[in-house]
Design brief:
The chain is an alpha/beta fold. The protein has helices spanning 2-36, 66-74, 85-94, 100-103, 111-127, 148-152, 168-177, 215-228, 259-268; strands at 55-57, 62-63, 138-142, 160-164, 186-187, 201-207, 229-241, 246-249, 254-257, 273-278, 288-294. 39% of the residues lie in helices and 20% in strands. The model is unreliable at 4-13 and 16-44 (pLDDT under 50).
């Protein structure tokens, strides 16, 4: 009878641990959905990133945590409304001229060296085996603006580049600029809403735009990009990086994150950094620009 009692106790204990594990996995799944996919919960989920503390904004305010900053920004209004996080960003860019100097905030003179360094990073990815192209080749230019990167770099390597850009007059200019030598599509949509076709892209290039996404939308977007890659494709994130924490630009509704912050969000999306370099030969006084190849 003692043996039977011990066996019953062992079975009961095993069943208990199974139920606990099942509940934990279910909770993790629900949490993941609330962080990554629900637009109704922006700013409410928890994304844990080691090494990221507080930050500041362009008005001189100090935040002790990411949560405090996002609560301040997202509780003001519906993020998609005219006074909300995304609405304010779109309104800002709608008033900017559709020119190289306009989309680069008055720093149009850096465009050549920017494109040169991007080309070198791209060649490094090919040489080191982080990117293997398959025909027919296709790339996406995210936050494409007037097509500056597509025209000056991506279209040299891909016959078809899909330009993803929410600002109408930028995208119209891009289509004119690339007429005759790009077989890709021109997609007017914000990155928080864009869903790339699964397995379509060799390269998804994301430059100077990810700061407009909230943390939750950043993670969800990168997860979708991962699904949009071909088997040997790669995502390239080229972005301003502050030294630590974050800096919010209240005028254009964007956040400059530290490299640690950027990498932490990529990790939260289930992605790994396979190569990293910093932009060279930029003028003094500008943010450092990090280039991350991730998949």
């Amino acid at each position: 009878s003692t043996d039977i009692h011990n066996k019953i106790s062992a079975l009961a204990l095993g069943a208990f641990y199974f139920v606990v594990l099942f509940c934990l996995l279910q909770n993790q799944q629900v949490l993941g959905e609330s962080i990554c996919f629900s637009s109704n919960n922006m700013g409410k989920g928890k994304i844990f990133i080691d090494g990221v503390e507080g930050g500041t904004d362009s008005m001189g305010n100090t935040y002790y945590s990411r949560d405090e900053m996002w609560k301040n920004e997202l509780d003001r209004a519906d993020p998609t409304s005219e006074k909300g996080w995304y609405g304010k960003g779109i309104k800002y860019w709608e008033d900017v001229p559709a020119s190289v100097d306009g989309v680069l905030g008055g720093f149009g003179h850096v465009t050549d060296v920017d494109l040169e360094e991007s080309e070198l990073f791209y060649q490094t990815l090919l040489r080191e085996g982080h990117l293997k192209l398959t025909e027919p080749g296709r790339a996406a230019d995210c936050g494409a603006g007037i097509g500056r990167i597509s025209k000056g770099f991506l279209c040299n390597h891909f016959k078809a580049v899909d330009l993803v850009e929410p600002v109408a007059h930028f995208l119209q200019t891009a289509e004119k600029e690339l007429s005759g030598f790009n077989d890709g599509n021109y997609i007017q949509i914000g990155l928080q809403d864009w869903v790339p076709q699964q397995g379509l892209y060799d390269v998804i290039w994301i430059q100077w735009v990810i700061g407009h996404l909230t943390d939750e939308d950043f993670v969800a977007f990168m997860m979708r990009c991962k699904r949009g890659l071909k088997e040997d494709g790669v995502i390239v994130l080229k972005e301003n990086a502050c030294t630590e924490g974050f800096i919010v630009d209240k005028e254009d509704s964007s956040v400059t994150r530290s490299a640690v912050y950027l990498e932490g969000l990529c990790k939260a999306a289930g992605l790994s950094v396979v190569a990293q370099e910093y932009q060279k030969n930029f003028p003094e006084g500008l943010f450092k620009v990090v280039m991350l190849a991730i998949r």
